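Fold in tokens:
===
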Amino acid sequence: MGKPGLLDALIQMDLRFVLVLGVAWYLYFRPSLQLSSQASLAGDSILNRTWTVSYDAPKGLDSTRLCVALVAAMVVWLAVGVATLLAQSVHWPLVHDAPIMHYIAWRIAEGATPYRDLLDMNMPGVYLIHLAVLKVFGPSDLGWRAFDLIWLALTNVLLWRLCYPVAQQWSWIALVLYSGFHLSNGPPGMGQRDYLEFAFLLGGLVLTVEALGHKLDRRRLACAGFLLGCAMCVKPFAGLLWVSLAVWSFLKGREHAGGRWTSPSVVLGAGLLAPIALALWLASVGALASFLEAVVGVMPVYSRMHDRPFLNYVWDYWPLLALCLLTIPAAMAASKRHPRRIALSMGVIYGLLHYGLQNKGWLYQLYPLIGFASALLACAVGEAFTSKPRGPILGVSVLSIGFIVAIGQWDSRLRPAMSLTADRIGTVSALQQDVEPRLSEGSTIQVFDTTGGCLHALLRMRAAQATRYIGDYLLFDQVDQPYVQRLHLQLMAELRKNPPTYFVVYRWGWPSGQYERLRRFPKLEQFIAQSYHVEKVRSQYVLYARGPR
């Protein structure tokens, strides 16, 4: 046998390429295919007629038709992959960050005060969303999966609503790109805060664009501002897009009588409603001062924490980043200036700032950038394929195929996510098996972990942490900082006052260190050594029990 060709290699890599070739061939040659029939001697019914397919070879290569056929075929390729992955994802478990937010929400529902009894720096809107999920869907894996898929469907509806007036049927590009990116993040990506935030951002953008098309309709602007305010209650960086849309409405307001100041005032005022409501809630439960203290104290320390340099992550994801940024010039070349192109270009710029300003580089922080870029690309494709110049058609086609391939070849994202999931669920099951039989009435436990699964095990066992410290990432990094030293003093005071029955130390610290990270906190290391003994050693953690063996 000879050396395999390119076609053989593509088919061996992914059988969906057979579908791509078939769809592309059909779409390209469809105008040249003719179906005719002739009655037979047996009668003139459909079954008795003789059917023939004739083919008139096109004169020369029609590059426009070829581009349309190839892009459509690649959309089908990605859609098939997304549908397959969606079916496989139904039984994905709750894992990674989501169980921590579930734990905090459960404790709040049990009467704990956020930030005062549970030290964390996430925004209160995240807790309310998880409280609602626990109330409606329960704490099960299937309930969380159902919520995540409903949220994805809602986001896709908004994407379709934003793109369809311009992109028409090519709006499917935005839907399959965004859904493919989300599903390829695996179980750890389900319900991530940036994923939740994007739906609010997208809703605000949709309503702003529609308001501009209805003479700056104030009701739509108010709803847009409110949704952007909700987004700020999940991730405060959403304030950048909120202010940008208010400025845009101010500039557009000059074209309408009385709209110059009214429009931005409506956007800004409505955007403050959700943050003010949450501030009042925090104040009513005695958590506002603790929230402000956590923001002022935790964020400067947290912002300097890195498990890897930010630029290393950028290098890993540079194809996606580059493709997203190229959607702006592609849209400018393919279409005239209109509100949807402007709004989505603002969204792409915001998505880049959202990713860069967080300075962590994690994949799930790309949700706004991927989402807005996917919508902008869909609009560009829809407009390019209805225009006459061939330059934009070729450009957006190449960009679309590149973007689809970058999202669709998701093994490099999905495999690590599934490996992490298996490791975390193994830790949760093992810790539950080791601790649950030992916990009796009056027993308490303190785990030193961040996202390793220990808090997830406590959630399953309905066991509360002995102290307000739900994660150890603030305790073992930058120990020379005054705020961290103050946390050390507070923790030791809590532990001496009410020593827990059990300690669990997870094997890996974040952003760095393993078991030796306890040496960075000598008083805690000494306290454990003097008052506790090793009860159980596993590959994932060490369980300590109070008292001598």
Notes: The chain has a mean pLDDT of 88. The CA atoms of residues 32 and 56 lie 5 Å apart. The first strand starts at residue 33 and ends at 38.
